[in-house]
């Protein structure tokens, strides 16, 4: 448990400290969250095709992703990956490697290995750490509306008196279902001291853009 928590803290710490990334588009389906391979512990992430589909069968890898380590004991690059490999986020030199999860399982989870085509494979759940969308968004630098005419509310279940925000920039405070409580930010991403609720997801689609880093 402590090791899993440490892995999660390291992932989030890296997201906050390094680089710059702003989501430009969104996937056709959000999935269950994200799978972050334990690149500090494994050299090879094996990919499987419907593991244990037959009773008594043993999972056999159909492909793999290998990691390189030029500096220290952590992976800072990909040595080998299948043709067309396109993860959700990959910046291993800063410790970021996230695969979007289609199905979350105890032993194996199904992940997208090509975000452009939707190609998927199974991975060993114990070779990585799972992050929900809520955990991911809570640790982003900021979020903003896709549509500037979207409204903020005082309460997530009383939406008759919404207000627009100018600018529509926010820092996530809490996530509750399809809603999140946020701090309102200035155009320079400084807190205004005001809070509101916004809807971040509807019918499996994101209503926000996120900025991973400052």
Verbal overview:
The protein has 214 residues and is mostly beta strands. It folds into two domains: 2-131, no CATH class; 137-211, SH3 type barrels, CATH 2.30.30. 10% of the residues lie in helices and 42% in strands. It is built from two helices and 18 strands. The chain has helices spanning 2-17, 133-138, and strands at residues 33-37, 44-48, 61-68, 77-80, 89-91, 96-103, 108-114, 119-124, 128-131, 142-145, 151-152, 163-164, 169-176, 179-185, 191-199, 201-202, 205-206, 208-211. Strands 1, 5, 6, 7, 8 and 9 form a six-stranded antiparallel sheet that branches. A hairpin with an 8-residue loop joins strand 3 and strand 4. The radius of gyration is 19 Å and the shape is elongated. The protein starts with a helix and ends with a strand.
Would you summarize the structure shown here?
The protein is mainly beta.
Main traits of this protein?
SH3 type barrels; single chain; 214 residues; six-stranded antiparallel sheet; 2 domains; mainly beta
